[in-house]
Amino acid sequence: MPRIDLDPAALRAGTGYPAPFDEPVAGRLQRRLAPVAGLTAMGISHVLLRPGAWSSQRHWHEGEDEVLVMLSGEAVLIEDEGETVLRPGDCAAWPAGVRNGHHLVNRSNADCTFLCMSAGDRMAGGAYSDIDMVFTEQGYLHRDGTPYPARRTA
Amino acid sequence: MPRIDLDPAALRAGTGYPAPFDEPVAGRLQRRLAPVAGLTAMGISHVLLRPGAWSSQRHWHEGEDEVLVMLSGEAVLIEDEGETVLRPGDCAAWPAGVRNGHHLVNRSNADCTFLCMSAGDRMAGGAYSDIDMVFTEQGYLHRDGTPYPARRTA
C-alpha cells in the first residue's frame, strides 16, 4: 500500500442531514478513504471545507473515538468550552462517550483540508449539541425519538 | 478536548526490541497520545525520527489497521514493492492482515515527525519481514516460537 492519493478532485459534496441542517455543510467536500485503503477497523475521511463551510453539525459520538489532523488552511474548532484555531499539523481528538459537541468552521477566505479518523462502535450513535437531532442505527431522529424524513449517510 | 499539544519535548526514546533489533530505532522518540486524549478505541502515537532512525523493524499487523500522517520533515516508506518518499501532509495506510511489511526510515539530515493511528485487535500480533521475529500476546518470539529474552513494549 503506497501513499494514499489525496487528490482534491476526488472529493464530493453531499450530506444526509435533513433540511435546514444540511445548509451549513453544503461547502463540505469529502471522500471516505477506508474503502480505498482496505481498512476495516478504522474509518478515515479526507475533507475539504470551502470558506464558510462547517465540517458537520456540532456533535459527539457515544461509541466512537475521533482524531482529526489538519493538512492545509485554517479552521476554527468549536466545543463547549469555546474556540480553538487549527492549522496544518495540528491534531485534535474526541473520546467516545464524551458529550462535548465539536465541529470545525472555516472562517477563512481559503479552502482548508483535514483527515478525520474514527474507530469504535459506529452504531452506538450520538447527538447534536445545538439542534433537536440525534443519530442512531435508525437514522436521524428528533430528541423525542420521532424520525426525520432523511436517511443518515454522514 | 482542545488541540493536542504536540510538544516534541514530551517525546521519549525506548523500545522493547531485543538486541540487535533495537539499534535502528534508537533515534526514534515517541509518545502515546491515546491516554492523554482519553481514547479507548484508537491508538495514536506522535513520533520523531532523528536522521538515520527507523520507525520500527519492518512489520505488519494481523488484526490492526494503521494510518500514518506526516507532519514535518521527510522519510522513506519501505514496503515489499519498494520505496516511497513521505512529506508533510502525506498519508499512508496499512490494512489489518495484509502481510506487506512496512516501516519508515529517515534518510534526511533533519528530524521528521508523524502521527500514527491504529485500531483493531492488537493482541492478534504480527510479524517482522526482514528478521527472525514475530510479536504475539506472549511478546517477541522467533519464528519457531522460541521467546526472545525481552518484553514487548512497542
Would you kindly provide a written description of the structure presented here, covering whatever features stand out?
2 copies of one chain form a homodimer. The mean pLDDT of chain A is 95. Chain A has one helix spanning 34-37; strands spanning 28-32, 43-49, 59-61, 64-72, 75-79, 82-86, 91-94, 103-105, 112-120, 126-128, 134-136, 139-141. The first copy, chain A, is globular and about 45 Å long. Chain A is built from 1 helix and 12 strands, in the order βαβββββββββββ. By secondary structure, chain A is an all-beta fold. In chain A, strand 11 (134-136) and strand 12 (139-141) form a beta hairpin. Helices cover 3% and strands 38% of the residues of chain A. In chain A, the strands form 3 sheets. A 5-stranded antiparallel β-sheet of chain A has the order 1-2-9-4-7. Chain A has a 4-stranded antiparallel β-sheet with strand order 3-10-11-12, with no helix packed on it. In chain A, strands 6-5-8 form a 3-stranded antiparallel β-sheet, with no helix packed on it. The first copy, chain A, has a domain at 41-123 and 132-154: Jelly Rolls.
Name some characteristics of this structure:
homodimer; 154 residues; mainly beta; Jelly Rolls; 4-stranded antiparallel beta sheet; 1 helix; 12 strands; globular
